[in-house]
## 1
Amino acid sequence: MVDKGLRVRSPSGSAAQLPIFAAGDITNNSMRLSFKAQEQAAVVAANLKAEIVGQGKSKVYSQGDKIMMVVPVGSTGGTGLIMGWTPWSAMVKMVKGKDFLISKANSTISAK
C-alpha cells in the first residue's frame, strides 16, 4: 500500500521506519499501465531526492481518470479506449498490430 507520495505504508497507514517508495503494478493504484508506471517513477525519483537531500517539498501522484489503451486482437484488428473513445479496429491494427509496439520497449524501459 502506498500513500499519495508513493511511499510504502502498512495496512494500518503507518510509514516504514526507513523511506521506502514503490511504483508500477506493485502499488495499490487501480490503473496498472506502463505509461502510469513512468509517471509514478518521476514522482518516486523526486521524493527520493527530497528525502536524501533533506529539502524540497514531496511530490504527489494523481493517476487521474483518463485511460488510453489499445489491444490488438490477432493480426487483423483490435479494440481499446482512448480518453473515453473506442478506436476503430483497423486503427488499432495500424498503430499496434504489427509488432505490439515491442520495437519501442527498449526506449520506454530505459526512459529515453
## 2
Amino acid sequence: MQKIDVVKIADFGYSTVCGKKDSKKTYCGTLDYMSPEIVKGEKYNKQVDMWAFGVLAYEILQGVTPFYERSRKGTLQKIEKGQFNFTKDISDDAKNFVSCLLNVSSVNRQSIKQQIKHQWINQKNMAYQQKIVYDIDLKVINILMNKED
C-alpha cells in the first residue's frame, strides 16, 4: 500500500495483452485465480482478468480465496462450479459486486466498465466513512476498455 486506501497490484508474470476479438488457450496462472474457462482448457479472452479481479476482491473482503480447498482437485472443482460462500458480515452490495465478477459464464461476467458503475463502488457512505482513492494508471484503464492512443 502506498498511502491510506491506495493499493498497488503487481506480479503479472503470465500477462499478455488481449484485444476485443483475441482469444487464448494457454493453461497458465496461479490456481486460485484461474477462471473456469482456463481450468476447462477452453479458449478465453480478457474476461479472465475480471474473474481474477473478483477473486482478489473476495480475498480482500474475506481474508481467504473463494475456491480454496486442501487438494488441487477440490479447488479446480469449486472453480468450475463457481462454488463459494460469504460470511454474514459482508454487505449485499459487496456480495453482488464480487458475484458479478465470479460468474462462471464469461459472457455474463461483468466488464470493468460495468463494475466501475456498481453501487458498491459508488456508495457515498462506505465503511469507516472514508472515500476510496482510485490510483489506477490511465493507460491500464485504456487497455481494459480497448481504447487506442
## 3
Amino acid sequence: MATVTAMAAVSGEELPPAVAWLILVTLLAGGAAVVVTTVMAARGRLARNPLAGIRTGRSMASDENWLLMHRVAQPWAVAGGAVMALVAPTGFLTSHGAVFGVVVAAGTLLSLVPLFIGVHLGTRAIREREAEGGPGSAPGSGVRT
C-alpha cells in the first residue's frame, strides 16, 4: 500500500479510498498506542518491559526511572498522539495524491517532535535526580554515567 501511495504522490493521481482508510486507521492506532502506553506507565499501570513504553538505558535502569520518565514525558506524548490523530483524516480532505503524501509525511514527522522533547525532558529529570542521589542512582542500579 505504501508503494501505491508513493506512486500516487509522484504522479499526482487521485488517492484510492482504500489507501486513505489504511492511513487513517494506522495513524489513529499509532497515536492511541503512544498516548495509552505513556499514560499507563506514568500512572504506574505499565511496568518496565521490553515491548511498550519509553525504553532508554536510563528509563529501564530502575522502576523509579521508568515512572519518572513517563510522568515527565506524558504531556508531550499526548501532544504527539494528538498530532497523529489530526493528520489521520487528511486522505479524506484531499483526493490529490501529492498533497496527501506531503501532509501525511510532514504531519507524521511533526508528531515525533513532542515525543522527542518528552524523552529529552524525562532523561534530564532522571539525570537531575541521580545527581541529587535520588532513587535509582545507587551503585548497582544499572544506571550508566
